[in-house]
Amino acid sequence: MAYWPLVRAGRRTQNRTVKPRFHPAWAVAAVAFVALIGAAGFRSTPSVMLQPLHEEFGWSLGTVSAAVSVNLLLYGLTAPFAAALMARFGIRRVAAAALALVALGSGLTVWMNSSWQLMLCWGVLVGLGTGSLALGFVATITGRWFVRHRGLVTGVLTAGGATGNLIFLPLLSRITEANGWRTAALTVTVVALTVVPLILWRLRDHPADLGVTALGGVTEVPAKPAGGAARLALGALRDAARTRAFWLLAGGFAICGATTNGLVGTHFIPAAHDHGMPATTAAGLLALVGVFDVVGTIASGALTDRVDSRILLGAYYALRGLSLLVLPSLLAAVAHPGMLVFILFYGLDWVATVPPTVTLCREYFGAAGPVVFGWVFASHQIGAAVAATAAGLVRDQLGEYTWAWYGAGALALLASLLSLMLFAGKHLKPVAPGLGLAVPADA
Where is the Major facilitator superfamily (MFS) profile domain (predicted)? Predict the structure, then answer.
C-alpha cells in the first residue's frame, strides 16, 4: 500500500517515535466519505422511481411509498445494531457487507413483478444496507481514528449524506427519464459493487492494525465485546436508558428529525405549491438547502472541537425554532429575498446538530458512544416519520400547513431547552466498565 512506509515511520524505533508524514486516519476518512456519499444516494433513489413504478405496474403511490417508508424506518433502526456489529466483527467487514446488500436489493428489482418484492428489495435489503452506513458508521470511524479534529471530521462525513443526494438524485433522475428505471437500478448496483473493493483495500478497523495511534491520541486496542451484536446493542440501550442524558439527547434528536426530514423535507414543496409557487421552483429551493447543509455541517464539526456541544445544540435548535415560526409569513408565489434568507439560514442548520450530538454520546457513554448514538439516531427517524404523518393530517383537516410550522417551531425551542438541561449532568461516573458506559454523577 502507498502509505505503508509512512505508517511504519510512525512506529517506535530506537526509543523514539517518528510521526508519519501522512496519517492513515485521513485515508480511512476519505474511504468512509465515499461510502457515505454512495449510501445517501442509494437511499434517496426510490423517490426517483415512484412515478415510473406506478405507471408500469399500476401500483398505487401509497403502495410504492410504503416500501420507501420501510426503507426509512430500517435506515434508522439498523444504526445501533450496525454499530454493534462493527464493534464485534470490524468496520471493514460490516461496511462491505452493507454495500453488497444495497447492490443485491437494487439489482433484484429489475426482475420483480409484485409489490411485495419491491418491499423486500428496496424496503428491507436497501434499508438494512444503507442503515448500516448511517451516522452510527460516522461515530464509529471518528471515535476510533480521531482525537484531534474529531468534530471537524464528523461534520465532513455527515456532509457526505447531503453530497450524495446532490450527486445521485439529478443523475439517476436523468437516467430514469432517458433509459428507464431499470437502468437506474442497475447503475446503483454497479456503483455499490465498485466501492466494495475500495473499502476492503483501504478501510481498517483500528489504528493499531497499521501500527499507529489515533490521530492526536494514544495507542489503544479496544477489547472485542463479549456476546453477539444484538446483545451488545440492546445492552447498550438498556444501560443508556437508565440515564437522564440519553433521554435528553434522544428527545432533542427526535425533534431534529421531525423538524427536518419529517416536515420540511417531506412537506415544503406541497406547502409552497399551496401558496402558488411552482413545484419546480420549490424543489430548487429545497435542493439549495442541501448545498448550504454541506457548509453548515462542516462548520458545525469545526465548532464542536472548540465550543461545548451543549451550547451548540441549544443555539442550533433555538435558531431553527425561530426560523420555522417565521416561515408561514414567507411562503408566497415567488421566492422573494426573505425566503432566500430562510433557505440560507435553515440550510446551514439542517444537520449541524449531528457533530455535537455524536460528541456528547461519546462524552456520556464512553466506548459505547457509537452504539448509543445509533439508538439516538433511531429516535431521529421515528420523529421524522411521526412529523411527516402529522403534518399531512394537519393539511387535510385545516386546509393549510400553518399550524404544522408553528408546532415544529415550538418543538425546536423545546429541543433547545432539553439540550441546555444536559449541563446538569456534566460530571460522570462509570456504570458499566465493560462497555465504557457512564452516567451523570447525580443520576
Answer: 27-427
Closest CA to 101 of 77, 79, 122, 70: 122
Q: Is residue 286 part of a domain?
A: yes
Residue 265: domain span: 229-440
- Domain match, 292 and 363 both: yes
Cell 413483478: give the residue: 113
**Could you give the CA distance from residue 253 to residue 236 in angstroms, rounded to a whole number?**
18
Final residue of a structural domain among 143, 176, 210: 210
DSSP 8-state symbol, 207: G
Q: Is residue 223, in this structure, part of any structural domain at all?
A: no
313 and 206 in a common domain: no
pLDDT on residue 443: 43
Q: Which of 306, 319, 308 is nearest to 349 (CA)?
A: 319
Q: Which of 257, 242, 255 is nearest to 372 (CA)?
A: 242
Number of domains observed in the structure of the chain? 2
Q: Report yes or no: 79 and 377 within 8 Å, Cβ to Cβ.
A: yes
**SS3 of 141, please?**
helix
* 307-341 confidence digits (pLDDT tens): 999 999 999 999 999 999 999 999 988 888 889 88
Contacts of 206 (CB under 8 A, 6+ apart): 144, 221, 222
Q: Which of 255, 261, 223 is nearest to 357 (CA)?
A: 255
Of 414, 12, 38, which Cα lies nearest the Cα of 248?
414
Cβ atoms of 145 and 212 within 8 Å: the answer is no
Which among 75, 45, 72, 67 is positioned nearest to 187, based on CA atoms? 45
Report if residue 217 sits inside a domain: no
pLDDT at 227: 59
Residues 36, 86: Cα–Cα separation, whole Å: 16
Q: Among residues 106, 169, 97, 105, which one has the least CA distance to residue 137?
A: 97
**Tens-digit pLDDT profile for residues 109-158:** 899 988 899 889 888 998 899 888 877 788 888 888 888 888 888 888 88
pLDDT digits (tens, 9 = 90+) for 158-168: 887 777 767 77
Based on the fold, state whether residues 171 and 260 are members of the same structural domain: no
Nearest Cα to 239, choosing from 80, 26, 5, 71? 80
For residues 443 and 441, what is the distance between their CA atoms, to the nearest angstrom? 6
Range with the poorest average pLDDT among 3-12, 166-175, 324-333, 402-411: 3-12
Q: Do 199 and 254 have their domain in common? A: no
Q: CB-based contacts of 66: which residues, under 8 Å, 6+ apart? A: 119, 123
Q: What is the DSSP letter of 19?
A: P
Residue 222 covered by a domain = no
- 249 and 362 belong to one structural domain: yes
CATH code of the domain covering residue 178: 1.20.1250.20
pTM above 0.85, yes or no: no
